[in-house]
Design goal:
With 455 residues, this protein is α/β, with parallel strands linked by helices. The chain has 16 helices and twelve strands. Strands 3-4-12-9-10-11 form a six-stranded mixed β-sheet, with helices on both faces. Strands 7-6-5-8 form a four-stranded parallel β-sheet. α5 links the parallel β5 and β6.
């Protein structure tokens, strides 16, 4: 294997370059330190572009070796699986301004038992919820808040960072801003966020605004706030978030010893994660680190399914919808800001969009739990999509499949309790499992156990 210079572990990323550019290819490059989210010429979102020629000056084996040697080690800030790939993420932040909780490095769970049940034994679940704040949002927020800290260090006046959220984004923003000593502001839809998610920004000192609207309403308001004031926007329309989240692709391929799986199944709400993972795979292919792309499945809740409706029409038209209440509250989004990016990724990756009803997502989540997982409802949406595609033979018995689990199940204990108590509307709890209440009597305890074991 090609040796890596020792300087690579401690030096800054001098010589590597990245910038914002319009996703539609409009002329113009914009510094990552500029407060800009949309193209001034056409109004579409921007994306981060990297100097690929500079990155190609090192061989594919060099990058694999470098990333492997940095992975989960203690050299600051490379112990983070995001900042361990900094040359391909955000070369503009100096070490002293990196805001990190050593995010990434989440386990790749071999869901062998569940896979065998559905005829797909090479099934894996990327446990992105095993992170500092319990969701994949940490991967993008470390990049965004670090850039804000860098900009402030260089004299820019940014009094606060704000986001609209259905829970997980606000938790990540609040935590990383607390680490950095920067004020965070979060807009949450009232009574549409779990208690565990609500308490996180409160605990971290965020100015928490509970608004009588849905996520799309919160999103409209936070964009107006940030556009009229010098407050930095932290939602995924800010492409810096995507740069951190794309490292999930690199990391999971790294965990497979640089082999690419056949399928990636991703829950989709605002669609930033679909865009991010696709971007990570494309970057690796462009640098010669991999030689094929996986197929990507975006899984949506039936009650918030604008991308699924567009997919049925071959993406010829996209119409926002009024998202209805769903157990998968984090993806209850009817007007996703990253839809154009996501559609392009799905078209490039021969992608599929599938949907899941409330009954399907709840039971899929519970079925996975019975095999050792502990799923959030959004992972349940992805599992339900997997079950459908396996039943139809679209995903085959010899395919390697990775389901992206977006958040930790402990953030959704009310969902799980209500499931097992059969209290969820429109859900038949087929895997319910309640405690057996008995007096402290040996004979009755033994009888109950023998009945359960059919002895």
């Amino acid at each position: 294997m090609e040796a890596v210079d020792a300087e690579a572990f401690t030096s800054t990323t001098t010589g590597y370059r990245a910038w914002f550019q319009c996703i539609n290819g409009c002329a113009g490059e914009y510094s990552l330190k500029e407060i800009i989210y949309r193209c001034p010429k056409c109004g579409n979102l921007l994306e981060v572009r990297h100097d690929l020629e500079r990155l190609r000056q090192q061989s594919p084996m060099y990058w694999k070796d470098l990333f492997d040697r940095r992975f989960l080690r203690t050299e600051w800030p490379h112990g983070s699986s995001v900042w361990g790939k900094r040359e391909m993420v955000c070369p503009d932040v100096e070490d002293e301004n990196v805001v990190s909780t050593l995010e990434g490095g989440s386990n790749l769970f071999w869901a062998e038992r569940l896979g065998k049940e559905i005829g797909v034994p090479d099934l894996w679940v990327k446990q992105c919820g095993n992170s500092h704040t319990g969701s994949f949002k940490d991967l993008g927020m470390t990049v965004l808040v670090s850039m804000v800290r860098q900009m402030r260090a260089e004299g820019q006046t940014i009094p606060a960072v704000a986001c609209a959220s259905t829970g997980d984004t606000s938790a990540a923003l609040a935590a990383y801003c607390a680490v950095a000593g920067i004020q965070s502001i979060v807009f949450l839809p009232k009574n549409k966020v779990s208690t565990a998610q609500l308490i996180q920004p409160i605990a971290h000192g965020a100015l928490t605004l509970s608004l009588d609207t849905d996520f799309d309403g919160c999103m409209a308001l936070v964009q107006e706030l940030c556009s009229r004031n010098n407050i930095y926007l932290a939602n995924s329309m800010n492409s810096l978030r995507i740069e951190g989240q794309k490292t999930t692709s690199i990391e999971l391929v790294q965990q497979f010893d640089w082999e690419v799986p056949d399928w990636i199944i991703i829950p989709g709400g605002n669609l930033g994660n679909v865009s991010a993972l696709g971007k990570g795979f494309l970057l690796m292919r462009n640098l010669g680190m991999i030689d094929k792309l996986p197929q990507i499945v975006c899984a949506q809740a039936e009650r918030a399914n604008p991308l699924y409706q567009s997919y049925l029409n071959d993406f010829k038209d996209f119409q926002p919808v009024q998202a209805q209440p769903t157990l998968a509250s984090a993806i209850q989004i009817g007007n996703p800001v990253s839809v154009q990016k996501a559609i392009r990724i799905l078209q490039t990756f021969d992608g599929i969009v599938e949907q899941a009803s409330e009954d399907e997502l709840a039971n899929a989540s519970a079925r996975g739990d019975r095999t050792g997982l502990f799923n959030c409802p959004h992972t349940g949406v992805a599992l339900a999509a997997l079950f459908k595609l396996a039943d139809r033979g679209v995903i085959g018995a010899n395919d390697r499949v990775v389901v992206i689990s977006t958040a930790h199940g402990l953030k959704f204990t009310d969902f799980k309790i209500n499931y097992h108590e059969s209290q969820l509307h429109d859900v038949e709890s087929r895997h319910a499992n309640l405690p057996v209440e008995l007096p402290a009597d040996y004979t009755q305890v033994q009888d109950a156990i023998f009945r359960a074991l059919a002895l």
